[in-house]
Amino acid sequence: SLVPLKTTSEDYKLLENMNKLTSLKYLEMKDIAINISRNLKDLNQKYAALQPYLEQINLIEEQVAALEQAAYKLDAYSKKLEAKYKKLEKR
């Protein structure tokens, strides 16, 4: 009758140890989650601080594209003028 009692006691100790380990693991996971949350908040703040600069970059990019188009048109126009001038020169 003593053997089952000893086994039950060992089972209880094993369960107790498993519970302690599980509890520690959950605490570890909680710390990790807190760190991730903190880092995410930090990244969001940094991104928010960068936002105005990113908008300026986009605006500059659009302006450069428009300027490039204007330069192409000007180039085409000057080539037309040059061709007309050469025609007139031949007369």
TrEMBL record:
It comes from Bubo bubo (Eurasian eagle-owl). This is Biogenesis of lysosomal organelles complex 1 subunit 2. GO terms for cellular component: BLOC-1 complex; BORC complex; gamma-tubulin complex. One of its GO terms (biological process) is lysosome localization. One of its GO terms (molecular function) is gamma-tubulin binding. Belongs to the BLOC1S2 family. InterPro entries: BLOC1_su2. Pfam families: BLOC1_2.
